[in-house]
Each structure stands twice: as C-alpha cells, then as structure tokens.
Amino acid sequence: MSERNLNFDQIINRKNTKSLKYDFAEKRGYPEDILPLWVADMDFKTSSYVEDAISSLALQNIYGYTDTQNGDGFFDAVAGWMKRHHDFEVKQEWHVKTPGVCFAIGTALNAVTEPGDAVIIQEPAYYPFRNIIRFNKRKLVTSSLLLNDDGYYTMDYEDFEKKVIGNKVKLFILCSPHNPVGRVWTKEELVRIGEICRRKGVIVFSDEIHFDFVWEGVHRIFQEADPSFRDFTITATSPSKTFNLAGLQQSNIFIPNEVIRSKYIWAYDATGYDEPNIAGIAAAQAAYENGDEWYETAKKYIFENICFADTFVKNELPGVHLIHPQGTYLIWLDFRQLRLSADELEDLIVNKAGLWLDRGRIFGKAGEGFERMNTACPKSILEEALNRIKTGISNYG
C-alpha cells in the first residue's frame, strides 16, 4: 500500500460539511460568501493511511467505549514519531491522552493553580489562552514579545521576571513554536525563560502543537532544553495540526513529574471525561505509524506557499509586511504602516477584500494592526486571498 493523497492543489469543497471554517460565517457575523483563512486547519485531504483506518473503523460498525493499553501499538506509534522527528524519548508513564490541547490547558489550571492565582502568557498570544484563564477565574498576566528591527519577535526576559515576581505567578503557558508570530525558540531562549520559572517556582505548560512545522532552526522540546525542566513542565502535543485531525480530538500530553501528573489526572477525572474518541485513536495511530510521506510532502507544499506569500507581499502589497515565520503554517501580516484604525482594518479585510482572517487585536493589545492568515490551503486559494487584499488596499477610501 502506498500514500494516495498527495495532490495538495486539489480544491476540496468543504461547504455544507459542518465545517467551522466554511459553514459558520453568517453565525459569526460575516458575509456568507466570504473566503475563510482564519482557523488553523488545512484544506487538504489527510493521509490515505488515516482514511483507510477510519474506513476500517466504520466497517466495524461498533463504536463503544475505547481506550489504549500497553502492547496495542498506540503508545509505540506516538513514541516512534516523537523519537524520529524530534529526538524526544518519552516514557509511557508520562503519557496522558486528552481530547485537545485547550482542554489540557484548562485541566492544568485546575490541577496546579487555585482561583485567583496568576497565569502568565506572552502576547500577542493564541487567543483561547486568555479565555481559558479568565473563564477559570485565574488572574491573567501578560508579558509582550518584542518585535526587533530584523522583523523577529524576542522574549522580554526582564519584563517577564518582573511580572512573575509582582503577581506571584503560578503557571506559564509557553507557545512553542509561537502562534501567531511564528517564532521557533532557540535552546538558549528556552533555557533562559525556563531558568526564571525554575527559580520562581513557576510550572510551565508548553504548548508544542505546531512543532512539526519548522522552516528555520530546530524545534527544541522545552522540557529537554535542560533536563531539570522535566520537574516542572507539562508538554502538550497532538497530531491535529500535523495531519489535519482537529475534529477527531486526540492529543498527547507528557508529564514527567509524578506529583504534577497525579494532580493533573485528578483534575482530568474531575471533568467527567473518561475514554478517548475511538476515531481519534485510530487516526492518530495510523498517522504516526505510516504518515511520514504525506507529512513531508505537505510540509514542502506549505513552505512553498509561505515563500509565495512572502514574495507577493513584498512586491504587491505596499505598506504591508509579512513577519518571517520560522514555524507554523500561519503568517502574521503587519498592516500598521497603512495607519488604519482597528475598525478600518477590519472593514478593509472583510468588506473590501472579502476575507475572513483572524484579526490581530484578538491576540491581545500587542496584536493590534496585524492579521493572521492560514497558508495550509491550495496555492490557488492563497493567491486569490492575497490578490483580494491587493484589490482591497487599492480601492480603500
């Protein structure tokens, strides 16, 4: 058997499939015919090995309670992927399965913090971080990343440590690679921020869901940047971004510290969630065991899309800058030179260009004047979206 789903130029009609990306524009206040490149899922068919695994499951026609155990191949598939692609050696006792990384963050909040405790994030930050913290009645603390003259974001270590001390921060949600700015943190950067957390007794939740898409540098697993970091780190991974499986709700969380893991499992049990999604388990195992060819081909295609977008923005969109992404399949577009208000920028993107992007202000104050765009789509769709922005700018005002 060989991989069949390698035509990434193919346009897949996702309308009327209950797609959050394509079928909920009107419900969320956008025109029905808008072109969506906002939420981080792909417009590609996933690996044919995943397709075959789900087809086999469908023919089984019994979908009862499901779990995994030693010897059934699931953990071996997960561990094999981590070792092959990240040189990350995981132990089975570290492993906790969850229906998603955001679910895992909420579980971590209830495991290692109390209502009113402070949790820190680095803005502009993936916006569900803010919501999960606030909805769980924790104190949101932000430390803004710094955009340097070379067009890269860096961590503000002095501000971070000051905020940690001043607010008695209990938990840090690290995004690595960073969504939305696309930074792939170096080992030195991770060690420096990790040492602050170690000294101040801060537990780190490291969201590494985008770790399979790196264009520049090498992704470093945070807890492996310094072996001592294992004692205070919860590492979150998932096949959902890598293989376009978000709707199947399966993530793999690694917690080396036994005390933290016990608290985490207690908080997990308190949610009432028990066994994992049977389809998610089947898909994840198939992807991790046999999906390498699909993944490498998709990665090459997306990188070419990003390069195309970069060239287009430089040559065709005066006043717009693309922040060079070192990782993720998301691009962070800087519109600030156009000197538009937040409402004017929204009007340009939605009404003049006919696009549904993630507006920068939802990522925090540091995101104002930016837009996040998903490049994991056929090149023809990406080209159309960029041309719409070009037309929108030329017609604006």
Low-confidence stretches: none
Q: What's the average pLDDT?
A: 97
CATH superfamily of the largest domain: Type I PLP-dependent aspartate aminotransferase-like (Major domain)
Helicity range of the residues?
Answer: 40-55%
Provide the CATH topology of the largest domain. Aspartate Aminotransferase, domain 2
Task: Give the overall shape.
Answer: globular
Task: Give keywords.
397 residues; Aspartate Aminotransferase, domain 2; Aspartate Aminotransferase, domain 1; alpha/beta; seven-stranded mixed beta sheet; 41% helix; four-stranded antiparallel beta sheet
Task: Describe what this molecule looks like in 3D.
The protein is of the alpha/beta class. It has helices at residues 20-23, 48-60, 74-86, 101-112, 128-135, 157-167, 187-200, 222-225, 239-243, 258-270, 278-290, 292-316, 342-352, 379-395, and strands spanning 35-36, 95-98, 118-123, 139-144, 146-147, 153-154, 169-175, 203-207, 233-237, 251-254, 321-323, 330-334, 355-356, 358-359, 370-374. A seven-stranded mixed sheet has the order 2-10-9-8-7-3-4, sandwiched between helices. The chain has a four-stranded antiparallel sheet with strand order 11-12-15-14, covered by helices on one side. The longest helix has 25 residues, at 292-316. The model has no long low-confidence stretch (mean pLDDT 97).
Describe the secondary structure blueprint for this structure.
Blueprint: H1 20-23, E1 35-36, H2 48-60, H3 74-86, E2 95-98, H4 101-112, E3 118-123, H5 128-135, E4 139-144, E5 146-147, E6 153-154, H6 157-167, E7 169-175, H7 187-200, E8 203-207, H8 222-225, E9 233-237, H9 239-243, E10 251-254, H10 258-270, H11 278-290, H12 292-316, E11 321-323, E12 330-334, H13 342-352, E13 355-356, E14 358-359, E15 370-374, H14 379-395
Parallel strand pairs: 1-13, 3-4, 3-7, 7-8, 8-9
Antiparallel strand pairs: 2-10, 5-6, 9-10, 11-12, 12-15, 14-15
Helix pairs in contact: 2-11, 3-11, 4-5, 4-10, 6-7, 12-14, 13-14
